[in-house]
Amino acid sequence: MREASDLRRETVSLPFPPGEENQTGAACRVAEFMAGAVAELATRLDLPPREARLEAQVLAAHGLGVERTWLIAHDRDPLPAPQASAARRLLARRLAGEPVAYILGWREFYGRPFRVSPAVLIPRPETELLVEAALAGLPEDRPADVLDLGTGSGCVGITLALERPGCRVTAVDVSPAALAVAHDNAAALGARLELLDSDWFSALAGRPFDLIVGNPPYVADGDTHLGRGDTRFEPVSALAAGPDGLDDIRGIVAQGSTHLAPGGRLLLEHGWTQSEAVRALFTAAGYEAVQTLNDLAGLPRVTGGSLPKRPAARPPGG
């Protein structure tokens, strides 16, 4: 598999340099630039036309410093060379395979913009199911201690802190670079939470939580998906976890019971082919009410289980 840096160094070109003369000798217009960009994205990246058009609009608007609607309203305008060159550089990066989120520097999650960099995974829509499952168990009028494992950009922990401001949220990651991104996002979005440098539970001895959530690595080492699409540019340490992809999940499930309060719940995202194996891990570790939730595509995506509550005290002489 080629390194991400090799992919970034690839040079690509659009049908003709935007901002320079086209085949008729006239300056390139917005509509011509967009048509060429859409065609190249669809062909080079094998994107459906609608997706290629959306990516072209987003990248061109970002490069030109305008809103997407401007591209439509001014489609017959000539493109000044400096702005066109900036947009062309962004499109060239995308044509080399770099994810749009890294090019723009942000990705929306749960209706909020989160800064991202190659130090963190790009937030994905299916992870919103993890947030929704967590919120369902966190009543708005009841404070709780919540832990987000492997927070990355902070999208899960920060969202929970904003949606349930009465909760005490702690988010951990072993990567200082990832924690820096999470700190930036928390500050930008006005979220109050604790961010800690911790290898899973290593810095949390003696701290019980009412809810633990996590989106740990769950791709098998050597899986061909690691060499495709956006994952080529994302940190492998946040994606892969052993021969079957379950190494980190095994550790979290096994250790989670010692960091949950009685009746506390553990929720983990996993691959859609792993649900049966993950449920078995939860059951073997003594969790109760183990269940798997499906994402919007109908695929099993999040599994959770609870610790037993303390048995009721017996009356004297009972």
Give the topology, please:
Elements: H1 4-9, H2 30-44, H3 49-64, H4 68-73, H5 81-95, H6 100-104, E1 106-109, E2 112-115, H7 128-136, E3 145-149, H8 155-163, E4 168-173, H9 176-189, E5 194-197, E6 209-214, H10 247-256, E7 260-269, H11 275-284, E8 288-294, E9 300-306
Helix pairs in contact: 2-3, 3-5, 7-8
Account of the protein in words:
With 318 residues, this protein is α/β, with parallel strands linked by helices. The protein has 2 domains: 4-98; 121-306, Vaccinia Virus protein VP39 (Rossmann fold). The protein is 36% helix and 17% strand. The chain is built from 11 helices and 9 strands. The protein has helices at 4-9, 30-44, 49-64, 68-73, 81-95, 100-104, 128-136, 155-163, 176-189, 247-256, 275-284; strands spanning 106-109, 112-115, 145-149, 168-173, 194-197, 209-214, 260-269, 288-294, 300-306. The strands form 2 sheets. A 7-stranded mixed sheet has the order 5-4-3-6-7-9-8, with helices on both faces. Helix 10 (247-256) links the parallel strand 6 (209-214) and strand 7. Helix 2 (30-44) crosses helix 3 (49-64). The radius of gyration is 23 Å and the shape is elongated. The relative contact order is 0.10.
